[in-house]
Each structure stands twice: as C-alpha cells, then as structure tokens.
Amino acid sequence: MANVNIAGLGKSYDTFRAVSDISLKIDEGEFLIFLGPSGCGKTTTLRMIAGFIQPDAGRIEIGARDVTHEPPHRRNIGLVFQNYALFPHLSIFENVAFGLRRRKMAEGEIRKRANEVLELVRLSHLTERFPKQLSGGQQQRVAIARALAIRPDILLLDEPLSNLDARLRLQVREELRSLQKSLGITTIMVTHDQEEAMSVGDRLVLMQAGVIEQVGSASDLYNAPANRFVADFIGRTNFLRGSAVDASTFRTDSGLILHTGSQRTGAEEALVRPEAIRLTREAAMEGPNCFRGRVERCVFLGGVVEADIELEGGTRLKAVTSPRELAFEGLSAVENSPVFVSIAAKDVVPL
Fold first, then answer.
1. Which listed residue, 11, 132, 244, 284, has the most CB atoms within 10 A of its CB?
2. Which residues have CB under 8 Å from 307's CB, separation 6+?
3. pTM of the predicted model, to two decimals?
4. pLDDT at 285 over 60
5. Among 232, 182, 310, which Cα is nearest to 36's?
6. Strand-pair category, 269-272 with 349-350
7. Is 132 strand, coil or helix?
8. Which residues have CB under 8 Å from 92's CB, separation 6+?
9. Dihedral (C-alpha) 39, 44, 45, 49: value to the nearest 10 degrees?
10. Calpha distance 265→350 (Å, rounded)
11. What is the pLDDT of residues 154-189, one digit of tens each?
12. 121 within 8 A of 140, measured Cβ to Cβ
C-alpha cells in the first residue's frame, strides 16, 4: 500500500495533446476514479502510471520512489484489464499463480498466496476450472485475484466492469468496493460511467481534452460543479440561460426571476437539478421560487417519475420525483395537467 504523486504529467502524439500538465496527489488507501468521456486522457494517464506509456513531461512517484522511467514489472503494481486477459489454457489457480511463478517464489508460498486471494474473491471452490467455464463476473474476480496475489503497492483498474451486463455490473462493483476497503489498498480506476464512479470512488478526477476539470468527492462534483462541463457530465441538469441580477438573483432569458443560494458574478447560466424540483397541486406557502406551469410529458420508471414541465413564459424544466410524493400532493401528473413548481434557493446554482 502506497501513496501516488503525479506532477506535471504530459503526453503528446504528434500534434495531439493527449494529457496536459496533470498534477495530483493520491493518498494511501484511497479509491480514486479517473472519469470522463472517450478521448479525455484518463486511460493514457493510467497507462503512464502503470509504465506502459512513457510521458513526455512530468514525474510519477509511488511511495517514496520515482518510477517515471521504470518498466511496469519494477513498479509493483497490480493491473486489471477491461477484457480480463486471462490465459485460456491455464486453470483458475494457475492464472492467479502466474505472476508469483514469474517472480520465482517457492511453491509453498505460491500456493498459500494464490489460495488466500481466491478465498478473498470467493472462488476457492473453482480452482481447477478454466476461464471459459466461468461467468463474466467470475472471470473478472479471477483477474482481480491475480492482480492482488503479488501484493502490489497500488491496484490499477482499466474499465474493469465494462464487459458485464447491467445487473452483474452492479453486483461486481459492490464487491469491488467492499474488497478495496477491507484490504485498504490504494486503487486507481478508469471509467466513463458516472454512476459507477460515484458509487465506488472516494474521490473523482473528471477530465476533458487531456486536462483535469475538477477533483473532489461525488457530492462535491454534483452539488458544486466547477463549470458547465462538470455539471452536465455528473447527473442530469436543467440549464437556464440568462444573467445575474445581483448576488442572490438570476433572471432567465424568458424573464423568470430565480433567487439563488450562491454567488457568482457575471453568471450567464444557472443550473437546477431535476430532483431538486418539487411539484405541488397548490402554490407553496414558503420559498420565493414558486411558479405555475403544466405537465407536458410524464414517464413512470418504477421508483421515480420523470416529468417535463413548461412554466408560464415558456421556460421548460425536467423534474424527477417519486410516485409517493405525487400521490401525497394529490397530483395525477398527466399531460397538460396544471402544476406548481417550487425550487429552494440553495438549489439554483449560477455558473
């Protein structure tokens, strides 16, 4: 287990700047997520940490060691690939033991370590099977066990759940989070899936076009986005064009006056999260941001209801609420039904 220090890291391919001057400190035992759209530089950054790509500039330290120019096998890292990369001709036990044998460890120690990690990932009963005899989730757990068997200083995960179906993906990510916390191993994962990142990461590093847009907890990025890109990428958002009237008031282009909970001089846009919008049958008695509107469209999704609302003046908002809340308010929320929209000032965030 070790901390990781990245300073001024950069990588170009001809005229294309894949990663530009990234600096970041990753704490010992932290689960850090590199998140962003395809081509943002997250995988390139991970591969530079792993040693598969040499940076053009900058420094990478794992613990107290400068490993910038060290080959992968000298960095003591565990790496789990997107496609598992298991050896089809080797048993599950031999797949896990592969890295230990390459290190020329004694047979007794190899068996001890391999059995320990297979027990950890709950596959000790399948040691003699081959990869093709396992499910996708089981194969991924074998890949994780193989990475952990060498007792790495850090664990690197390159889109480890992308090949799994939705239900299995949810199960394996919960197992991965639990395993990482029980071991306390410093873990860095790459994903483009915001829900996956928010559910497992201690901190998120959101990237775009080779640079870091914001670093923080899922709550930080969701509730206090640094810019429009962050707000748009993390969760769903209503963006309202307009201008700041003063430190606590924002006027939309359609003339809607919104009281805000934060200050941002010169703001030309404000965001309102769909779940922050309250729908009522009658006008709310408290709070300044209460508007009359009508339901344009309503979709029942089991635990939540999504509604498209048009306010007087033409402003359109997407709201997310629960069926129980709608029933409590006595709303049928069918198309063209009248509704009142209420938004707390703290939930109107100028950008």
1. 11
2. 279, 295, 297, 298, 299, 318, 319, 320, 321, 333, 339
3. 0.88
4. no
5. 232
6. antiparallel
7. helix
8. 118, 123, 126, 127, 128, 129, 130, 131, 134, 142
9. 160
10. 9
11. 999 998 888 777 787 888 888 888 889 989 999 999
12. no
